[in-house]
């Protein structure tokens, strides 16, 4: 008797394996975003911290991480899941034995850098200087990202031109503003500020009391406090205008008009914007507008 052929069985096995392989390689679609529900008895206020999702994958796709919800996200909402960013976590010494208290980077030598070594987020949100001169929030830098693919234009559903390739923030708008190189050549200085500051009594306000007086009018800075501190110590200004230059390029700041501003635009300023980004100025006038509205209703 002739033995049964195994060829049909093998053929169907190959077809089945191929089907399973293609199914596994298909582009997975992200699950529908899970909206975090408030805990029982919690306040329904939009500023209240939401209940933390118990599933990491659901939390990753929570609407708060994307526009438009992230534009209205509060620090309390962000820190309800990311509280660790404000916890002190700097080693007292490196694995090689270098003491943190004696290790200073070149950008930490200005007089305004005080206290022990601290973490990145605490330096921008929680230190004494941050609270005095800044009003930074989580969404000042973080504008959302795509967990599926942090690169714009890679699919029909990922056309957000604001995404920066493989980065959680856009360094140009979030870092370069305060960590760019000082453009001392176009400022009329004889040499870099570190070399010429003694000639100006280490006081930027000697010139800027009359030149470019419309400045720092953004919601992530305390303009009045910066001007007051800058009168007594030029490092307050220099610290964010070249003293901590992580980049070798200059940031093209918007050239806001000031009283007595020359009508002729110099070559180095041509093409620059004349207003800050809307998201940085809209909230800056909101408290005053709200207060005025409340006063009118009384």
Descriptive report:
The chain is an all-alpha fold. It is built from 13 helices and no strands. The longest helix has 20 residues, at 278-297. It is globular. Residues 22-46 and 285-298 have low confidence and may be disordered.
Q: Which overall shape is indicated by the principal axes computed on the Cα atoms?
A: globular
- How far apart lie the N and C ends? 104 Å
Low-confidence stretches: 22-46, 285-298
The total of beta strands comes to: 0
Structural class: mainly alpha
- pLDDT average, as an integer? 79
Beta-strand content? under 5%
Helix-residue proportion: 25-40%
The helix-strand sequence is: HHHHHHHHHHHHH
Number of helices: 13
Oligomer: single chain
| Cα-atom radius of gyration | 27 Å
Main beta sheet: strand number and arrangement?
A: none
Tell me the layout of helices and strands:
Layout: H1 7-25, H2 56-60, H3 75-82, H4 120-125, H5 128-133, H6 138-141, H7 171-174, H8 176-179, H9 193-196, H10 205-208, H11 223-232, H12 235-243, H13 278-297
């Amino acid at each position: 008797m002739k033995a049964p052929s195994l060829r049909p069985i093998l053929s169907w096995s190959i077809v089945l394996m191929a089907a399973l392989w293609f199914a596994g390689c298909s582009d997975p679609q992200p699950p529908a975003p899970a909206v975090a529900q408030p805990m029982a008895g919690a306040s329904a206020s939009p500023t209240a911290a939401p209940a933390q999702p118990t599933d990491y994958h659901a939390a990753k796709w929570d609407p708060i991480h994307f526009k438009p919800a992230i534009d209205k996200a509060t620090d309390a909402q962000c820190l309800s899941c990311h509280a660790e960013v404000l916890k002190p976590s700097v080693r007292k010494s490196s694995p090689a034995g270098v003491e943190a208290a004696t290790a200073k980077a070149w950008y930490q030598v200005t007089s305004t850098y005080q206290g022990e070594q601290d973490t990145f987020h605490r330096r921008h949100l929680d230190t004494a200087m941050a609270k005095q001169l800044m009003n930074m929030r989580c969404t000042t830098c973080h504008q959302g990202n795509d967990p599926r693919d942090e690169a714009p234009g890679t699919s029909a559903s990922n056309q957000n031109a604001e995404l920066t390739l493989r980065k959680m923030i856009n360094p140009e708008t979030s870092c370069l503003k305060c960590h760019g190189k000082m453009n001392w050549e176009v400022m009329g200085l004889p040499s870099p500020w570190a070399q010429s500051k003694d000639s100006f009594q280490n006081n930027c306000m000697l010139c800027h009391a009359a030149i470019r007086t419309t400045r720092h009018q953004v919601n992530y800075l305390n303009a009045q406090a910066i001007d007051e501190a800058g009168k007594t110590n030029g490092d307050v200004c220099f610290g964010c205008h070249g003293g901590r230059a992580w980049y070798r390029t200059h940031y093209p700041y918007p050239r806001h008009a000031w009283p007595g501003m020359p009508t002729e635009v110099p070559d180095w300023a041509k093409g620059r914007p004349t207003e800050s980004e809307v998201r940085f100025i809209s909230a800056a006038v909101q408290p005053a507008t709200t207060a005025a509205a409340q006063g009118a209703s009384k």
